[in-house]
Amino acid sequence: xxxxxxxxxxxxxxxxxxxAQNTENQVLFTIDETPFYTDEFIRVYNKNLDLVKDNSQKDxxxxxxxxxxxKLKVNKAYKxxxxxxxxxxxxxxSYRTQLAKNYTNDSKVTQNLIxxxxxxxxxxxxxxxxxxxxxxxxxxxxxxxxxxxxKRIKANIDGGKSFEDAAVDFSEDPSAKDNKGNLGYFSVFxxxxxxxxxxxxxxxxxxxxxxRTSFGYHIIKVNDIRTSQGxxxxxxxxIVNKPGEDEDVAKKTxxxxxxxxxxxxxxxxxxxxxxxxxxxxxxxGVLQRFGTGQLSSEEFEETAFGLKNPGDVSEPFKSxxxxxxxKLIEKHPVKTFEESKFEIENxxxxxDRSRVITSTLNEKLKAKYxxxxxxxxxxxxxxxxxxxxxxxxxTVSKEQMEGYxxxxxxxDNKAKISGVTFINFVLDQQKVSHSIKPIGTLVDNLYQxxxxxxxxxxxxxxxxxxxxxxxxxxxxxxxxxxLFDLMEREIxxxxxxxxxxxxxxxxxxxxxxxxKERMVTDIYSSTSxxxxxxALKYAKNKKSVDFIKEKLNxxxxxxxxxxxxxxxxxxxxxxxGIAFEKGISDVVQVGEYYFFANTSKVLPAQAKELSEAKGxxxxxxxxALEANWVNELxxxxxxxxxxxxxxxxxxxxKK
Length: 655
What we know:
The structure is a single chain. This protein has 26 helices and 21 strands. With 655 residues, it is of the alpha+beta class. Strands 15, 16, 17, 18 and 19 form a five-stranded antiparallel beta sheet that branches. Strands 4-3-6-5 form a four-stranded antiparallel beta sheet, sandwiched between helices. A four-stranded antiparallel beta sheet has the order 8-7-10-9. Helix 18 (419-429) packs across helix 19 and helix 23 (529-540) packs antiparallel against helix 24. It starts with a helix and ends with a helix.
């Protein structure tokens, strides 16, 4: 039920909120001098206007009483300290974290990345590359050396040297000697984002200019571009060459297995018995579904995608991993954008392109909030961090830490962050292996990350003041969770377990729990009047329901349906025209169906037993307890209503 409250609040968020128009925000009422304002009342009333099913709740006087009762309950929850429970605090924190994601991610940038990824996923690129490795944090000197190397290679290719020969001669990718730089076909999310960007920007048959990724400097040649093949689910049998064994042995083994398959043995049984891929053999050779570029074997992928129909089996073929036979299980075409966008967004969060979102937010926050650093203090802190930091052995004593406890960073002329906070950040980052040198440059780099973290924290902590909508929704969460805990404790549990109270309430309100006239009956129906008349004849001869159904229905053709039970007058299951009387009725037609009823008993209108009305009794008892409780709450506090303001709101909202 608590989750239903939260879902309801999220629904309200999606519907948006309506701010007060023409009415200045004023105090509407106070509870023990705590003020409650017109803007919240108007916003909540407008927001819920189309959601309430009970029209009486749309009446402004009724709604005001409900709103006042709601605030009285929340006030009680705070008084008894429900807001101090660890469970409540954790749940509220969790909800806030989820809600804040809508404000801490740049939705426009995210949407652009989703659309870009989907469009790229519609095609596959076959490319070759040449790599000159250089660390992402390499010194300027080493970076320049690597850059000049890749420039010379590009110049050689422009001068007529083939890309493949250049890859063999110069590329520092270990696989280049064998594959001449060929990466095969790949699609979106298969390569690091910087590499993917260049691949999709380079025209077919052309060679890119040098560019950098986290691995080093590259140049790319795009060999082909084709429409995406989607994904496939396939199974395989693999035989590998054993160390010291002649290659012909593996070839002979796979040929023998293929012959056994052609003789009628099942692919799955052969995979279980003979395949050297133990991760899939126990499952009959079934692999996880895959797309182009996922298996690091162009031969395998081309063979699998080349099979046309589910159940098709390839002839034996060789890859760099061994000999295979592949069976196609299912082809999965490219999904629509609507089907893909949630999955793509999750991939973006795990992919290095998420840096684009973070970077955009960082730039916005730097422009939004002024940042000031105590430069003299920063230089002093910087000088305290020694080269032993690289060995991950640097420590700071308690006495030293006390000396760092002064303001280092100021954000938005409000938030003050101490040197202690920065030093703790640096100590935490010591767990990571760093290659940026010298130590001063590394500390400057860490300080930049620290400032970005503190800006993000400051922004997150001030979402309520930055976004009125966020403030309102968080207040609804806060009060909604409190109200749930309070109601469960004061009303819901009691209404379910207080059997004496339930009995007394039932006796006092028995007139509300009455049966109308009922009949115990079997209602026969059919789209064929002739078939129904046959059933009618059997019924008049006192044949049972089971006998009639067995005589008229077959597995292939159900001619007669029967609904048996005790039905109250006005029940929709009783066809119009069927009289409330004992015996067999006449045949009536309603739409395309024909009906008759065989009624064994007619029960008069009478009071329900408590057991028969228990669900409604508990619900009504709960509402009565709540109403009485609210009246008691009113006696515990001093309520002052600004009737003049309330009248003005009524006039405004009735326009």
